[in-house]
Amino acid sequence: MTDQTMTDYQRVAEAITYIKHHSSEQPQLEDIAGAVHLSPYHFHRIFKKWAGVTPKEFLQYISLNRAKKLLKKNQTIEEATFRTGLSSSSRLHDLFVNIEGMTPGEFKSRGQSLDIRYHFSKSPFGDILIASTGKGISNLSFVKERDESIRILKKRWPKARITEGKDKHIRNLDNRFGSGWQDPDEIKLHIRGTEFQLKVWEALLKIPVGQLVTYSDVAQAIENPKASRAVGTALANNPIAYLIPCHRVIRKAGGIGEYRWGSTRKTAIIGWEAAQAGEDHAGAD
Predict the structure, then answer these.
(1) Which residues are catalytic?
(2) What distance in Å separates the CA atoms of residue 113 and residue 187, rounded to the nearest whole number?
């Protein structure tokens, strides 16, 4: 992942924010490009390079009507089936993510005797911090300030020995982001959560790329239909950004909803995944 790609994402994020604030005005390409200090031609080019679709097409994917259509495609998470293999080289297929929950002893000890390594890297959606216990990835978060990200990591693992560096799990994930998910090895997660949280996070992995569900859908999937509010809390405590796709859960009444790492980033990820999935379906026709 190059610095130029990161700059492209930052421009896209700025453009999405502008569009949100001016949606009632139906801004044209020239207006959006001017807001991010680019010529319309250059903005159109980098946007399509980043998202795979034009700005106009992307906005259709993240509009409320598009979100509702995506929602209707997936009646319940139980009915969703994994697509076999990668339909393109540009994104992760959730089949390659495997969750291993902490043992009761590890959970209770809050990281005592664990050696956790962390590494700062880049993704299509911003800088990230990746941490590993040696058994698997324990944390993946988008970074606003590095010192703050390290502080949050240490707060989550107060008794662990935390040092900067890489192990095989971090290298595997780092390479996947850098290579566009070509020929991915299985990604192992080793995460700390309650039994309920683990059920919710595992259910999220069953939501296909390019589809959206509601909090109540997730509650139904874990056979606890009255737990929508608790599902929301579990999503807010998800320690693994993007790989455990809490960004694919939206409000039943409409709207993108909250996201731990910012609603603009959530909007960008949803639009990007929907656009990629749309291209695959078009190619299959």
Answers:
(1) 246
(2) 23
